[in-house]
Each structure stands twice: as structure tokens, then as C-alpha cells.
Design goal:
Blueprint lengths: L30 H35 L23 H23 L6 E6 L6 H9 L5 E7 L1 H13 L1 H12 L3 E6 L18 E6 L7 H14 L4 E8 L5 H12 L5 H5 L3 H10 L4 E6 H6 L6 H10 L5 H8 L2 E8 L1 H7 L13 H4 L1
Parallel strand pairs: 1-2, 1-4, 2-3, 4-5
Antiparallel strand pairs: 5-7, 6-7
The structure holds S-adenosylmethionine.
Length: 364
């Protein structure tokens, strides 16, 4: 195999800021110098993590342009004169599966127990448009409280896009008039404040981490989830999308691709399999869990209907079937929940804990 791209970190040409070599200071540096270079190092690493939003949003635009996805709002995030990048077919298919699978979990939550107001908290939301795309059409009469959390730089960029796009601003206003409320929070999830404005602790709440918690040290990722778990007194669910299986040949290449960009996904080795992801959710207090890799989701009618699979297969010729299977089996969606609202939303979803079905053992 000549090269092994991965869904979110394929070189884009535009790239992101890169680490300028290793940490300076070294032996003999004063503690003041050490502190300064430590914080420069952290800031530089944070900029790289912030720039991963471009990978996610440009992959979405590529999939959108080719007809994989529908999203009337995503193009507002293109900079003036910027061309929509074209991703490899396997990347487009991966983006399709990832987006539609998370949409499905979100939709089932919104449709469960009609008449109950609900809340969604999206961690590291970046340029995601899910609030505008699907929440607006499925909020019901009671509305939805929606929070997006990200670093200040990314939140400021999103606010600027909303301000200069009449279509986005109009949609937001209509949703507000319909009873929804939208909150954009500039926060570092590694250091959450004691309270976040607008969070309603008594609403059934869905937390989303679409490729976000994986950029944090595992302990801090756990603390961030606990932060919400401790505060929400109603049913709560969590959806995680992130890479898995770093220890096989493909996984090792994936890890080294990331490292060449200065990204060390610390949760990847800790939660390396579907089983480990389910355990993680269990330990976090979600008494029911499910996990599927992207390849399993693609192949399962309950997730992607046969008609949809045929439609998607016709969009682009994909001859790297083996590469697709490898790539797709290295990304997973894991979901965990507690409480009645989520029992009705997710109880019957294919993929809830049935370890006999896991392919982790074969794939190692
Ligand atoms: C790969 S992007 C995903 C964006 C979006 N969830 C999506 O899937 O389109 C990761 C996002 O997580 C954010 N993120 C990562 N670590 C974070 C932290 N500690 N605090 C706030 N945001 C963080 C990044 O800034 C970035 O916007």
C-alpha cells in the first residue's frame, strides 16, 4: 500500500501550524525559561489541535459537493475565494458514515419522549453545523437547548461566519423564535469553569464528542465527561467518535501520520478497542453502552440501508476496497447512556453491548 490516509488527518495542502522542532530549554535552562518554553509548546500544540477543525470541515465539504451529504449551511464556512477540496473516495465514504451515524443517534434522542425539552452539548464543535442542519427540523414544540464548546479561536471564527452569513443568522433566529436556544462557549475543556451559562441541569442531555476528547490527556478527558455527568440530574448520554486499534500495522502508520503533524492522541492507546471504549463509558457511569467501528456501521442495514449504500456506491468509483476496510475499521462510534429518555431513544439500536459480535479479537 503506497500510502495510508486516515479520515481526519490527511494532509490538506493548506496544513496547519506545525511544531517548530522540539522543546527548547534543556538541561541548565532556568526555571523561568522552562516555564516560558513550556507554555509556548502548549500554545503551539493547541494551535495544531484547533486546526484539525479545518480537516473535519473540509472533509465534510468534499463529501457534500459530491452528493454524499446534504447540508445547506456548511458552505458558509468557506473563506472568500476558497475552493472546496476534493478528498479520496475512501475519505468521503468515511465522512459520510461518521456524519450520518452520529446524526442517527442525535435524531433518535430528539424524537424520544416527544413533548420533553432536551439539551445537547457538543464538545469541540468546531465548524459543525448539526444544530442548524437537523436540530431545527426536529426540535419539536418544546425546543432544544444546544451548547457548542471549543477554544476561543475556533469559537470566534464561528461567530464571524454566522455574522457574515444572512442564511445562518436567519436560521438561528427562526430556531430561537421556535423555542430553541443556542450557546457558543469559548472554553478549554481541560480547564472547565465552575459553571457554564445556559446549561440546564434538569434536562435530558446528550453530550457529543466528534473527534474531540481524543485530543486531550485521558485523565482530563475523563474529568470533562465527569463535569457534565456530575451536574446533569436527568438522563444523560454520550456519543464518542474517534480512532481505535493503534497497535496493528495500519494503526501504527496512523499514529505516526498524526505524530508527523505534532499530534499525539493520548486516548488512542488507552481506549484502543471497541471493548475498551465500552468499558470507558461504563466506568464513567453510563450503565448501557454500544460501540461499532465505521466499517461495521457501513455494512449494517440498520445503520446504512441497502438503498443508501447503493446510492453512495454510485457517487464515486472506489477501487481501494481493502484500504477502505482497513481505514474504516480504525474509527469507531461509541455511545453510552443512563435513564429512560435514552432507553427509548437508543435501546433498540444495533451495536449495544454484545461482546460476542466484536471483531476486536480478530483485528487485535
Ligand atoms: C477534529 S475537530 C472536530 C470538530 C467537530 N467536532 C467536527 O467533527 O466537525 C476537533 C475540535 O475539538 C476542539 N478541541 C480539542 N481539544 C479541545 C479543548 N481542550 N478545549 C476545547 N476544544 C477542544 C478543537 O479546537 C477542534 O475544533
Amino acid at each position: 500500500m503506497a500510502s495510508i490516509p486516515n479520515l481526519n488527518t490527511l494532509r490538506t495542502g493548506r496544513g496547519g501550524p506545525r511544531l517548530r522542532g522540539s522543546r527548547r530549554g534543556g538541561r541548565g535552562a532556568s526555571s523561568l525559561g522552562d516555564d516560558a518554553s513550556d507554555s509556548a509548546d502548549v500554545a503551539s500544540k493547541d494551535r495544531i489541535i484547533q486546526s484539525t477543525d479545518y480537516d473535519a470541515s473540509s472533509s465534510r465539504l468534499s463529501a457534500l459537493e459530491l452528493g454524499y451529504l446534504t447540508d445547506p449551511y456548511a458552505k458558509a464556512f468557506l473563506k472568500p475565494g476558497e475552493q472546496i477540496p476534493r478528498r479520496y473516495p475512501i475519505i468521503n465514504r468515511g465522512t459520510y458514515v461518521r456524519s450520518t451515524a452520529i446524526d442517527k443517534l442525535v435524531l433518535r434522542f430528539l424524537q424520544a419522549e416527544p413533548g420533553i425539552r432536551k439539551q445537547i452539548i457538543s464538545l469541540g464543535a468546531g465548524s459543525d453545523t448539526r444544530y442548524l442542519r437537523i436540530v431545527g427540523d426536529h426540535a419539536g414544540q418544546d425546543g432544544v437547548v444546544y451548547h457548542e464548546l471549543d477554544f476561543e479561536t475556533n469559537v470566534a471564527a464561528k461567530k464571524a461566519v454566522i455574522e457574515r452569513s444572512p442564511a445562518l443568522a436567519d436560521r438561528l433566529q427562526k430556531m430561537k423564535d421556535g423555542g430553541c436556544s443556542y450557546h457558543l462557549h469559548s472554553v478549554d475543556l481541560r480547564d472547565l469553569p465552575s459553571s457554564l451559562p445556559g446549561i440546564e441541569t434538569d434536562l435530558p442531555t446528550l453530550i457529543l464528542s466528534e473527534c474531540c476528547l481524543c485530543y486531550m490527556p485521558p485523565e482530563q478527558a475523563t474529568t470533562a465527561v465527569k463535569y457534565f455527568n456530575d451536574r446533569i440530574t436527568s438522563p444523560i448520554g454520550l456519543v464518542i467518535y474517534e480512532p481505535v486499534r493503534p497497535f496493528d500495522a495500519f494503526g501504527r502508520t496512523m499514529v505516526s501520520n498524526l505524530a508527523s503533524r505534532g499530534i499525539h492522541m493520548q486516548t488512542l492507546k488507552r481506549y484502543s478497542s471497541l471493548d475498551a471504549q465500552r468499558q470507558r463509558l461504563k466506568m464513567a457511569g453510563f450503565d448501557k453502552q454500544g460501540a461499532r467501528d465505521v466499517h461495521q456501521i457501513w455494512e449494517t442495514d440498520a445503520w446504512v440501508s441497502e438503498a443508501e449504500r447503493e446510492r453512495v456506491e454510485r457517487l464515486e468509483w472506489l477501487d481501494e476496497v481493502e484500504e477502505w476496510q482497513l481505514l474504516a475499521s480504525h474509527y469507531c462510534i461509541a455511545w453510552g447512556w443512563k435513564g429512560q429518555t435514552f432507553d427509548s431513544a437508543w435501546g433498540g439500536i444495533e451495536g449495544a453491548r454484545t461482546s460476542a459480535e466484536d471483531r476486536d479479537d480478530e483485528l487485535g
